[in-house]
Amino acid sequence: MATAGIPQGALVAQELGLPFAYVRSKAKEHGTGSLIEGEIIEGQRVVVIEDLVSTGKSSLQAVEALRNAGVSVAGLVAIFTYGFDQADENFKAAKCRYVTLSNYNTLIEYAAEHGFIGTNDIDLLTKWRRNPAEWGAELEKTS
User: Fold this and answer.
1) What is the C-alpha R_g of the chain?
2) Which residues of the chain have pLDDT under 70?
3) How far apart (Å, rounded) are the C-alpha atoms in residues 130 and 86?
4) Does residue 133 sit within a domain?
5) What is the pTM of this model?
6) E-strand spans in the chain?
């Protein structure tokens, strides 16, 4: 998981009275060279906890590392997702279920309903959501 997911993962583990492990983005270059820190036991069933899912790439690297260590990954839960189709495709290809507590569309709806953003903002944010890679280039052309 990304470093930002550690506090949520640790809190959930503590609340449930379960062990906590952290999957690094890459193996340590010193000491034990570990990719996974914490207690894991081959065959145990785990849930990966993340703060954010965009494309799912980094999350699925953690899932793969755990699977390679002989752990059964029940799925992944995240606080937020942008809801990109690429994430759905990546998780499906990896045969990993995932759920999120909130998402981009819900955030925009809430912000609009409570007057935090206006119609122009919604249009701009919707355009970004459709194609974030090209959104910035389009914005630069208009400014």
Assistant:
1) 18
2) 1-2, 27-33, 138-143
3) 12
4) no
5) 0.84
6) 21-23, 36-38, 45-53, 72-81, 98-103
Residue 86 resides in a domain: yes
Tell me, yes or no, whether 53 lies in a domain: yes
Instruction: For 90-121, write each residue's pLDDT tens digit.
Output: 999 999 999 999 999 999 999 999 999 998 99
Residue 99: which CATH number?
Answer: 3.40.50.2020
**Count of structural domains, the chain:** 1
Look-up: residue for tokens 């062990």? 19
How many whole angstroms separate alpha carbon 142 and alpha carbon 4?
35
**What is the spatial order of strands in the sheet that 72-81 belongs to?**
45-53, 72-81, 98-103
For residue 47, give both structure tokens: 């849930």
68 occurs within a structural domain: yes
5 DSSP 8-state letter: G
Q: Scanning the structure block, which residue is given the tokens 């249009």?
A: 123
